[in-house]
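Write out structure tokens for Flagellar P-ring protein.
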Amino acid sequence: MRRPFSRLAGAAALFGLLLSAGWPMEAAEAARIKDVSSIQGVRENQLVGYGLVMGLQGTGDTLRNTPFTGQSMQSMLDRMGINVQGLDMRARNVAAVTVTASLPAFAGLGSQIDVNVSSLGDATSLKGGTLLMTPLSGGDGVVYAVAQGPIAVSGFSLQGQAESVTQGVPTAGRIPNGALVERRVAGSISDSIVLQLKNPDFMTAALIVDAVNAFTSDRYGMKAAKERDLASVTIQKPKKVNVARFLAEIGELEIQPDIPARVVVDQRTGTVVIGNNVRISTVALAHGNMTVRVTETPQVSQPGPFSNGTTQVVPRTNITVDQQDAHLAMVGGTDLQTLVHGLNRLGLKPTDMISILQAIKTSGALQAELIVQ
């Protein structure tokens, strides 16, 4: 029987082996400002539309169960001058779909963007289909792009009389460069630039300000940045400097972002992630597992020859209890390497480590935020 979390436990053992061999661990990795922040006002815009996919090999919507597909076909044919009023259409090569896309900031007229297509009715597969011209609107109801083209589907579904095979999601696909931008989103960058931190933190904001001011003082003879709060930094563009070039220079500056002391636990998969700044006050702990196994081995009792007895099933239950020995161990450390060494010495599985971390947090020895997902 395959043990759960075997790959996770193997990864944890490998991590512990690297640490015991003296594998170097950096206190914090340098990151570019453009990777830890975004520019306020420079963002994507969500688009959505409703369309029809044609050319399916009998895997489209059943018009009896999805009447809106039939209505859409009728409206489309009416606009093309074909009268289908009162006709009973039974086509299975058409599917109603929703089309979504993200319009990048400052996207020019005629530029191409990717679109995602998802079935709206009871179609079984969109493989081989072609999306007809579909307007894509924003939240304001204005059409910003038009999508059309063949759909790329990674999944498939095959069905016989007694068995069916499905891999991936055949009712969803993607059209690379499938939409043309027809309208630009109004927007501009002023001389007062606001950087928004992706992981808000006062120390990270201060580090960004120091790095920007050091650069602008040396390059332009002025301090251009100022921290506004834990989530944003304001930067004043120097005079006679192109804003795009200035943002490119600022984005390449490197800092070492501050990482909060945090432990993230996912009980569903047994994943444990410990941040670099996590500290545990020295504690003594013992952890042991108890396994209770109940085995049913029923026996059949047959009556003797020429007797009037009946066959009876006699239950036989065997219960065994196995409890591992638990010894007290000292766990604690001032850095992540010492902490991981201490936990690895106990030979813990991910599920055991989750229980121990929760108990250490309850005792007040875990100097970090514990997030249980």
